[in-house]
């Protein structure tokens, strides 16, 4: 019992310490927000011909997500559709204190980096934080150059096939083979045209996705961090276990005492009336 008492006392002290540390953890979370880096500083001119793709993930209080998402959408709309377009938007309540949302945009490449920085600033002002940032790039300019070079060879070959087809001395099977070859060359040229258009679009419009989330996902961000939750749950389990043990002891103890008294009475009777006396 003495050991159980000290275990319970230690658990209560641990729980009290966790509660007392909550303000300090919030301060640490605010400091971590202030020290979080912004969007990587990559000038567009440093990578000509590269099509960038921006993705940012934020964590905010669940009540703030809708407002921040709307602020980002309005900032895009103010730029006009020639410089920024909203191509997707979602808001989803996952649980009581858990909200997920996304906002997908396409921007003028020249303003994409600064727009991302302004988006981070809006999140920070709403007591949120940047938790992930990814800027990927694809060398669209090189892809266009490769397609143009390939097109030159395809057009030269197609021109030769068309000259052959213009001849009146071709046999039917030869004409059929050249016709099939010409169709294949034209199909490859159309495919290259689609690749070229897609890469030009990538250079002209930069995709950007904002992802928003709330909940107990980041240690130190709020009072619902996983570490504090685990410690609190451990303390609750310890107190609960002690309660169950106490109930069992109080339930079984009277019977144990009764059995002990019966056994003591039996031993006393054996000493007072030995078996030999009883047999006589």
What does this structure look like?
With 280 residues, this protein is of the alpha+beta class. The protein has 3 domains: 1-24 and 225-270; 25-140 and 204-215, no CATH class; 144-201. The chain has 7 helices and 5 strands. The chain has a 5-stranded mixed sheet. Residues 1-37 and 217-225 have low confidence and may be disordered.
The arrangement of helices and strands along the chain is HEHEEHEHHEHH
* SSE class: alpha+beta
Main sheet strand line-up: 2-3-5-1-4
Number of helices: 7
Supply the number of structural domains. 3
Shape: elongated
User: Helix coverage percent of residues?
Assistant: 55-70%
Give start-end ranges of low-pLDDT stretches. 1-37, 217-225
List the helices and strands and how they pair.
Layout: H1 2-35, E1 51-59, H2 62-79, E2 84-95, E3 98-107, H3 109-125, E4 129-138, H4 140-165, H5 172-204, E5 206-213, H6 226-272, H7 275-279
Parallel strand pairs: 1-5
Antiparallel strand pairs: 1-4, 2-3, 3-5
Helix pairs in contact: 1-6, 4-5
Notable characteristics:
alpha+beta, 280 residues
Task: Provide a short characterization of the protein structure.
This protein is α+β, with helices and mostly antiparallel strands.
